[in-house]
Amino acid sequence: MLQWLRQRFQRRPLTEPALHHPEPPEQQSHGSAAPQAAEPDPIAALMPFQIRPLDSSDMADLLGVFREAIQISAADDYDQQQRDAWSQAQSHDSLISVLSEGDTVVAEWDDKLVGFAHRIRDYINMVFVHPDASRVGIATLLYQHLEDGARIDGITELTTHASLTAHDFFAYMGFISEGQEQAERDGVPLTRHLMRKSLV
Asked: Rounded distance, CA 145 to CA 51, Å?
């Protein structure tokens, strides 16, 4: 059905990212996926998206989204060794610990959990979307929820560590890169961007 709809709309590939992953500054993480976002996908309006708060029963699915997004969506920017080190940086228990602080929202698409995003105060820590559900606007919806929450909290600036894959997505969202830096996962170097956005 989805393929038929896309053919009917003569859908061209979009540039919205499949994922983004920074982590809390103290964890020295590394960001993630995205080319520049583009015009809205006409299919997205027809599909049953839902953005909702994190539930404890979501954790197993979130870990799968996290790992699949890294392994598949970041393949053009990071080699296999880098993706393996990055995707294994979180376990079920460590992900629970990380997401226990701050604001976490998840995305359901056609009754399946396909993405999540996490903010700790003024830091966008994670935005991940499963590759099977990428490029239809889900990452944008997740990010916008976090930015709205930050504005309600009176935050005037957001920062993130964006991977090479996620750089263009965050640039489209209004972030400015302050340059590249090196993070490390299990002794493996990963290049990322420190990015910042003013909310005033």
From this structure: 8
The structure tokens listed for 56 are 């404890």
Q: Which domain CATH number covers 72?
A: 3.40.630.30
In 3D, which of 133, 122, 114, 124 has the Cα closest to residue 163?
124
Tens of pLDDT, residues 7-16: 433 333 333 4
Note down the domain range covering 193: 15-198
User: How many residues are there in the chain?
Assistant: 200
**Dihedral of alpha carbons 167, 104, 141, 138, sign:** positive
| 3-state SS class at 98 | helix
7 in any annotated domain:
no
Alpha carbons 28 and 144: distance in angstroms, whole number: 24
Q: Is residue 131 part of a domain?
A: yes
Q: How many domains in the chain? A: 1
Q: For residue 126, which amino acid is it?
A: M
What pLDDT is attached to residue 75?
95
- Parallel, antiparallel or unpaired: strands 123-129 and 157-163: parallel
Region 162-181: mean pLDDT is 96
Q: Is residue 5 part of a domain?
A: no
C-alpha distances out from residue 154 to 15, 89, 150, Å: 31, 32, 6
Burial of 33 (0-12, 13-18, 19+ CB in 10 A): buried
Q: Model confidence over 11-69: pLDDT tens digits?
A: 333 334 434 555 434 443 344 443 334 444 555 545 678 999 999 889 889 999 999 99
